[in-house]
Specification:
- The protein has helices spanning 9-29, 34-53, 56-80, 100-117, 122-140, 145-161; strands at residues 82-84, 87-93, 96-98.
- By secondary structure, it is mainly alpha-helical.
- It has a three-stranded antiparallel sheet.
- A hairpin with a 2-residue loop joins strand 2 and strand 3.
- Helix 3 packs across helix 4 (100-117), helix 4 (100-117) runs antiparallel to helix 5 (122-140) and helix 4 (100-117) runs parallel beside helix 6 (145-161).
- The radius of gyration is 18 Å and the shape is globular.
């Protein structure tokens, strides 16, 4: 089977274009940062190919673990996060910095899609809303309003695509 057989080109090509454009801008603004950026782009490309090959049924099985792990990362940020300009958004591991709110975004989408995809009802919708608000406020506490709003918009997108009745 071809390595690119399951790649959604409608997502990949615009992402590739934006990555190239961003790299060109970065190389003109901060040429010293470009080699490190190239490593991150290669890692992102590898991750994209890897996750495009994973069967969705496998991701469904890990959905509760994705949420639990994401929440633990957000809590770790509150406890061990490096404070920069009054915000604790980063976890420093040696010379590597990780921003858990960015890592958790796709995991939250997978979890909420899994949660909404089963049996539907007001109790399940309420439980999903409470779990989303918990993540929303943990990210907002960092403070990171942009990522918190992305989580909220993603949740609303899952609700919309899951055809949850408007009355809920």
């Amino acid at each position: 089977m071809n390595l690119f057989s399951r790649v959604d080109w409608r997502i990949f090509l615009p992402a590739l274009f934006l990555s190239i454009l961003g790299s060109l801008v970065l190389s003109s603004v901060a040429p010293n940062s470009f080699p490190r950026q190239f490593v991150y782009l290669a890692l992102a490309f590898f991750s994209f190919i890897l996750f495009s090959r994973v069967d969705l049924k496998i991701l469904r099985g890990f959905a509760p673990w994705f949420y639990t792990g994401s929440m633990l990362l957000l809590l770790a940020t509150m406890l061990f996060g490096a404070i920069t300009r009054g915000a604790a958004r980063w976890i420093v591991i040696g010379s590597f910095n990780i921003q858990p709110s960015e890592v958790t975004k796709p995991f939250f989408l997978i979890f909420f899609a899994w949660l909404i995809s089963g049996t539907r009802g007001p109790k399940k919708f309420l439980a999903a809303g409470i779990l989303m608000l918990l993540a929303f406020f943990l990210i907002l506490d960092q403070p990171d309003l942009g990522s918190a709003l992305v989580i909220l918009a993603g949740f609303l997108g899952v609700i919309f695509m899951g055809r949850i009745p408007f009355v809920y």
